[in-house]
């Protein structure tokens, strides 16, 4: 007899749709809350993308691959490092033979073969992958259709695969994975998703902001800290489309001013490309958002080249030099300009290290606070909602807040009553960071940071509770204050 008990089948929170512009894409079929899991999925294939000696990685090293390597052992020993870069494609090649049905599905992924044919990238893959696999006898060398299939596989990987971080300390191993559903996610420079993977590369797709039923679900294929020009160029070169999202089509990139230079005329406003979607940004006019002064793109390019050359010359280990450069660049660029962001990131590397010392320099901690605050405010515009980058910046931001507050209190520069709200500020920033970091798998760097952060939050809460108890005795002795900060 048939089992009449109903089994709850989870309904999908998205459907596949099609548009002329995006091709296939995923659309929300229900309202989604930030943090909500939209779907999880196992990768079809995982492999390294650049040369590395570590071939033995993960269960994606299948028995047929093993057999093939054993057969060609001597020849492969010689070409080990070249081989690694071809491994992902070889794995798809083997999958084609092993699981033709799955290959049919993979084959349906967008590869943009027409746009790649006879370009530099085609030539590169021909030499480094197709010819390499043929010369090592890992694929038939005499069949011309093999080259075409391998090029198709290269296109599929380049357009659809996601970057993965190897679990544990496998430095220098750059992995990419192909996922069936995630390959249908479209791009937006201000996406609405947050992607995490666990140790087995299982992918979880979360909503990063509230998503309405009918919205396209999408993420940023590129990186948020590039200006629109670099981002659009990267998308054009690697994903073969011209991005016209709300950030790219706005002159001032939604008031983030990430590509804007200070108006040389009024010195108050910032210049943005008059026609942001132009193909020739340095041949068109840029316009000031305050006085509407127009300036030729080539002049902007010269200015940027000059700024770039200053950044190239600076000593990355020298905080003072970097701080001077940051101030100098502010005379020309908006504080959120991607070139200033480069300098800020270099500075953060130094400050981060300083923050781990028992007696960090006050100036460094003050600057760290400033840089983190500015970066956070920018990320709120360009990567709203849940963002990995934001979580890290929030974490780093709370460090100088707590350190400077404790220092000021122990030196009697602030009262215990003043200490409490400042520490609470630090705790609330840390909590914000943790709500994001705790979405990460425990073994990832962010997952580990979350564990450390939880410990710090506990200590901070104890400190706040003690400060509250002690605030009744406002005339706390210096000894009492020091004791408080030893917690
Ligand atoms: C990972 S695939 C996404 C699935 C693809 N649309 C399909 O039908 O298989 C990436 C490709 O989708 C298209 N695409 C994604 N986002 C886009 C966007 N914002 N504007 C135009 N095309 C986009 C581009 O062709 C891009 O190379």
From TrEMBL:
A GO molecular function held by the record: S-adenosylmethionine-dependent methyltransferase activity
CDD domains xrefs: SET_SMYD (cd20071)
Pfam families associated with the record: SET
Organism: Melipona bicolor
Occurrences of domain SET (ranges): 10-222
Entry protein name: SET domain-containing protein
PANTHER family for this protein: RE22408P-RELATED, SET AND MYND DOMAIN CONTAINING, ARTHROPOD-SPECIFIC, MEMBER 4, ISOFORM A
Cross-referenced InterPro entries: SET_dom (IPR001214), SET_dom_sf (IPR046341), SET_SmydA-8 (IPR053010), TPR-like_helical_dom_sf (IPR011990)
